[in-house]
Amino acid sequence: MQKFLTLFGVLVFSLLTACSTVSTQDIKVETESDSKVNLAAYHSYVWIGASSVLNDPEEKWQPTEVDLAGDIKYLIDRELRKNNIFGVKDDADLGVAYFLGVDMDAMQLKVNPETETIVLENVPKGALVVALVDMQTGYVVWLGSARADIAKTFQADIARERLDYAISKMFKNLTSKGIFK
């Protein structure tokens, strides 16, 4: 179980890891919310889940001592606090969950610059989805997603910066729409 948790942590951070510089151009963030729900009316939340799926048959990444799951939770907690929604143990308005998927064997068609021919190339991909669930009804009232290319090797500092960017942008999209006040 400890090995799985360590691997899960590595996957979360490596989800958004770039090659050698901190670039966020490839990170695509989208959000959706229920137009009938006033998210400004929510003031408390509780964590209801986290899950991940990894496709890495060649074990290209090695586990590190980084607590990636904890860092993702921290970033989401921070963004909710910025919007006056605070974590509680009981009777929360919202439930928070996230899902991470990483595919180290993802393939993509690319143009070879030397021959100008189209070739199939390995381009590892990752995605992070964050859901806010109304605890009274059980319905998802907000969903944020980020997808990106990821590096074939893990660099903790770059991964942290890219995760911070993606999660901040998810919740910024909400505030820019005036959903949270």
TrEMBL record:
Signal sequence, start to end: 1-24
Keyword terms: Signal
Any Pfam family: DUF4136
Superkingdom in the source lineage: Bacteria
Keyword Ribosomal protein appears in the UniProt entry: no
UniProt domain DUF4136: residue ranges: 29-173
Organism: Methyloprofundus sedimenti
Record has Chloroplast as a keyword: no
InterPro entries attached to this UniProt entry: DUF4136
Protein name: DUF4136 domain-containing protein
